[in-house]
Amino acid sequence: MAEYPKLTHRPEWTALADHRAQGQPRLRELFAADPGRAERYVVRVGDLHIDYSKQLITDETLALLQELATATGVFALRDAMFRGEKINLTERRAVLHTALRASRDAVVEVDGENVVPKVHAVLDKMAGFAERVRSGEWTGHTGRRIKNVVNIGIGGSDLGPAMAYEALRPYTARELTFRFVSNVDGSDLHEATRDLDPAETLFIVASKTFTTIETITNATSARSWLLNGLDDGGTSRSSEFENGGDKAVAKHFVALSTNAEKVTEFGIDPDNMFEFWDWVGGRYSYDSAIGLSLMIAIGPDRFREMLDGFRIVDDHFRTAPAEANAPLLLGLLGIWYDNFFDAQTHAVLPYSHYLSKFTAYLQQLDMESNGKSVQRDGKPVEWQTGPVVWGTPGTNGQHAYYQLIHQGTKLIPADFIGFARPVAELSEELKAQHDLLMANFFAQTQALAFGKTAEEVRAEGVAEEQVAHRTFRGDHPTTTILSPELTPSVLGQLIALYEHKVFVQGAVWNIDSFDQWGVELGKVLAKRVEPALTEGADVPGLDPSTTALVAAYRTLKNA
Ligand code: F6P
């Protein structure tokens, strides 16, 4: 691998550091000197209107950031990703979530094989199955219609479909019930199934590896719940498959995985497996077979509209010039704050109740991708990498943690995501509330940017001892992402925007955004500790603190 010059020694980096050292730009002054920035600092992609005029930047900042992107090879790495090169170095894999939304006639090769026909074959198989469930043609073991769909998965095999199901609820088949089980805490499966009839319930076991302990444990318990609950006098227990599978399981369990062997071992009919491939990262997978629950919910046509939305942003990221390239700009703005303002976090604040799980989804996308501290060649990084991503839908956050954003001591860059229209199915009275929601949306970014000076506070007749308390510093940077309506296509556009933003940042920081070794140690230790909890077994090498805690746990448990 070619030697990568130390990032902080690059002239483009030191130029940015010098630029930053010239002082903190004030948004009031920037707008006064250049009102045109309100129109100029806008980028449009698909249905997304992205306004970054309230960022602490000037034309010079942008030019310097773009020079950094060029110098660090962001564009070359981007092209290598789209070409199917193995840019996930530690796992030696291609990174081709973009192939999941490629059009039927596209050609994307991995090891000389065009993968697009495989992608569409699985999409077609998913569509056929989704239609059969939606129409009632696919029935449970006792012949009853499927009314409930329970997705069992975790991380990328849960967050995407769960988030998108919430986001697109108005587009879902309302007569069906959808639940998402991820936590190995048995309460999750219990609450998800306690009011369901097994005869009407379909389980979708989603796991790329089909070895994830949480998912396999929950799927095993779900199988027992099904077989115990089916009111057929136990005839469903007759073994039909070679691997000890079960007739009932075949009608109530399907799998989404890359691992046919493990799926079969679990007892799921391989015909009921929907495949994806190792070049799809878990956190980049909900537009693959992992989206089956979503496809059943919204139907294949809407699912394809969502894929079209992804593709709009993929094409834009691949071809738009640097100065109008939305994911590039968002990625570079994040670097500006992360590395030159020492911002530790990034808030994503959607003003849509339907996006209640959006930020949780982005947490995995961003933090599992860019929460790294070694470079691609294994050397330690000596600069900040991925931020802590957090946030909940407005306006609830306004009455909880916005105080800290407005008047705390930390700089918290934030993305505000809003829509011009409420969803069509709301009553006229509820639709009218949308302007109030959006008034808050615009007011918050205004207050964050421009604050309120002491003079303005005094002019309102506020007593002098209160002036400092009621002053707002302002200069809190925000990006506003506005689109007409939360449709499947717009959701796809938003997700692809963040996927590529994360890519840009990983490329500049010279880290592998596509592995996740950091989750392994905890998994291994959990396996080791478990016998100590269940049987009180001695665990060799357990540290004194954990040993004492395990002892306390066992005392409480057995009290
Ligand atoms: O948390 C680690 C991780 O490997 C994620 O990357 C992945 O999305 C999740 O576990 C679930 O993995 P699987 O789909 O293989 O069950």
Describe the fold and architecture.
GO terms for molecular function: isomerase activity. InterPro entries: G6P_Isomerase, G6P_Isomerase_C, Phosphoglucose_isomerase_CS, SIS_dom_sf, SIS_PGI_1, SIS_PGI_2. It is an enzyme of class 5 (isomerase). The strands form 3 sheets. A 6-stranded mixed sheet has the order 1-2-13-12-10-11, sandwiched between helices. It has helices spanning 11-21, 27-33, 37-40, 59-71, 74-83, 116-135, 159-167, 186-193, 213-229, 247-252, 260-266, 292-298, 300-319, 326-340, 358-370, 402-407, 428-450, 454-459, 464-470, 488-509, 520-534, 544-558, and strands at residues 42-45, 48-51, 109-110, 113-114, 148-152, 177-181, 201-206, 253-257, 273-275, 345-350, 388-390, 414-419, 478-483. The model is unreliable at 236-245 (pLDDT under 50). With 559 residues, it is an alpha/beta fold. It is built from 22 helices and 13 strands. Helix 15 (358-370) packs parallel to helix 20.
Q: How much helical structure, as a percent, in the residues?
A: 40-55%
H/I helix tally: 22
Largest sheet: 6 strands, mixed
What ligands are attached or bound here? 6-O-phosphono-beta-D-fructofuranose
The portion of residues forming beta strands comes to 5-15%
Number of strands: 13
